[in-house]
Amino acid sequence: MNKNFPFKEVFWENIRDKVRSINLQLFNIIERISPDKRYPLIKADYNFGNMIVKDGIASIPNDEGVLTAITHPNFPSKIKEQLSYSPIPLFLVLENASEVFVETTSRVIPLNIFYPGKLLGLFESLDYLVGRKSTSKWCVSAGARNLFTLPKINEESGFKKLKIAFNLDSNMKPRYLSDHWNIFSKIAQHKNFNCPWKNEVIFFTKNWFTNASKDTEWLIFRDYIFKNAWYQAQFAISKIGLNLSWEDFSAAISARKLKPIPYLMDHVKQLMLIAAGRMSGFRAADNSNQAGPLHELQQVLIDIYTLKKYFPTIMHLCSIESETHLPMYYSLSYPTLLEGLPFNHSSNSTLMIDLRAIKHILDTIKPLFKKIENSVWSEAEFEFFHVESDKYNEILKSEQLCSIDKQILIDSIDGTNKEFCTTSQFWRGCIRIFNPANKQNYDELIKV
Is the pTM value of this prediction over 0.85? Predict the structure, then answer.
């Protein structure tokens, strides 16, 4: 094997204990199979910010951290053959988190974040099993791709200190929250950043699909893959259900004489998909460091950038699989619409006006949620926040967040004596979404 590539071929006996600790159900299934050395696995480690998958093709880093696509002519031929069944071979997250997203010419659209024990490349593997060519366009990052710190980090003297310490480009000075990841990934991959964070995954090789016998144990393994893929496909199915219900919602909106522009309706549909547990919102990072080397990045902002007043709370994507029972946040200042133009609002409007209009729409259609049989929205709750006071008292002020949601205060660094940032741009036009039914729905869906 080419020594310039830090991945290695392993077998079930090498990683079975690790899998047991993160996914007991999958462990029990594979343990019954007891695969021998005809069924190797490829283990690879990624630094924060590496692209495990770029535009639908998996990559693996070499010793210098340079990513090489598995389809590249210089990729080791033996491993290329083992992974050639799909441009995104099936892989299991072993350590820390990976985010799936789509990148367009103008923005990054988050889809989901996956923690240890989760499988990715499910659709592409099923395409292979049914003889269909896979043409996915999404990307997968090591660590969270959509993440930012609540306080501003564009003050000239502070950014200059970061630039010197981590060799940042001058044009990396952030203008928007969406610019923060570029800085964080550059810092995390610099030699002066001493944090041994890695996103470890294992790829399943071709023999797991082509040479596997058809006995019961292997069929259970394939059934597990199908069921997990079916759950991930629920996003598309929920969109169909939402579209079918939309006629009733539209009638209720018209009866109230509301005439929202398409831009606002796109946000409402996005909020409903988040409430249904089919799209991700944002949450404050916890103390696990799984979404990235976040504690160390926070320390950099305190020690080197020298944030003065606010604690550098980091927000990142919420996992659809395991975290939608938590309160999630969606902001008009950081729109993550899969469809529609996220900034296509009227020049005569403001975020406060848009937020109030969205609240009116949801208040109008919410009574219909419980009338829909098996409605995934029946228990959904929405709360609306803005940094500024609302003269109509319909929108809560963001300074109330600390008393409403203790979860956003969970991450801290002792001895900082800094405040939680309630003035962040993220809170300008922000909606808090909570639906306690989502966790149970997921657990029931993937039972084997």
Answer: yes
